[in-house]
Amino acid sequence: MSLEVRGLTIDIGDRRVVDGVSFAVPDGARVGLIGESGSGKSLTALAILGLLPDGAAASGSVRWNGREILGLPDRELAEIRGDEIGIVFQEPRTALNPIRTVGRQIAESIRIHEGLSKRDAAARAVAEASRVALPDPDRIVARYPHQLSGGQRQRVAIAMSLACRPRLLIADEPTTALDVTIQAEILELLLSLARDDGMSLVFITHDLAVLSQIATHGVVLEQGRVVEEAPLSQLLSAPASVVTQELLRDATATLWRPGGAE
């Protein structure tokens, strides 16, 4: 399955925050949306799944496997979210319910989309926790979000998003709030899961060094517009836009390994 975004425009009140964004994610591809805060990358991701905040209006085209999904009723989009397209947010605290065990939260989407019994979904939740390398999964599924570390909470959020084996995962700055060691572990986890499942990936970040570890193609945004689109190797070796050049300078000021996502 493939994603095609064409001429996506988002207005909040009388302010245009995304202006004619277009890109494609072929089946099995790993594409990065990169830009500074306010560039429109996260709003673009939210528009794909019909999750824009109140007061925001989107126009243009978002086609998933040839089907137009921009503007679909929420009930129809809910059937796609989690089942065909998953999403992981930057801060799992906002995605996890503090008064439910993490196992129950992982099992919920499985029950909704696959119709499993409560018992079978609970067993699957343990298997999904193990799949994202959570320690002692039989015990950890009985814990609440506040009882887990930041890295563990992000692994739970990933398990929730991938439990129904979506064909596309949108990861919106999923490592920004984590320390460098945990960040590397989460990137490696996402990359291995994408490869194992043959899943497409849209990875959103402001950090070109991070993007180099996981994506093979990059779309650079500035003030709601695409200013450059190219293979990651080209963005790293010969950036054409001033924005990408600045992102590259910021990236080379950190410890990183260019071209990590082969």
Automatic annotation (TrEMBL):
Compartments (UniProt record): Cell membrane
Source species, domain of life: Bacteria
Membrane topology: Peripheral membrane protein
Chief place of localization: membrane
Keyword annotations from UniProtKB, A to Z: ATP-binding, Cell membrane, Membrane, Nucleotide-binding, Transport
A single GO molecular function term of this UniProt record: ATP hydrolysis activity
PROSITE patterns for this protein: ABC_TRANSPORTER_1, ABC_TRANSPORTER_2
Record-annotated ABC transporter domain positions: 3-248
GO cellular component: plasma membrane
PANTHER family for the chain: DIPEPTIDE TRANSPORT ATP-BINDING PROTEIN DPPD, OLIGOPEPTIDE TRANSPORT ATP-BINDING PROTEIN APPD
Family stated for the protein in its record: Belongs to the ABC transporter superfamily.
Designated name of the protein: Oligopeptide transport ATP-binding protein OppD
Protein species of origin: Microbacterium trichothecenolyticum (Aureobacterium trichothecenolyticum)
Classification of source organism: Bacteria, Bacillati, Actinomycetota, Actinomycetes, Micrococcales
Gene: oppD_3
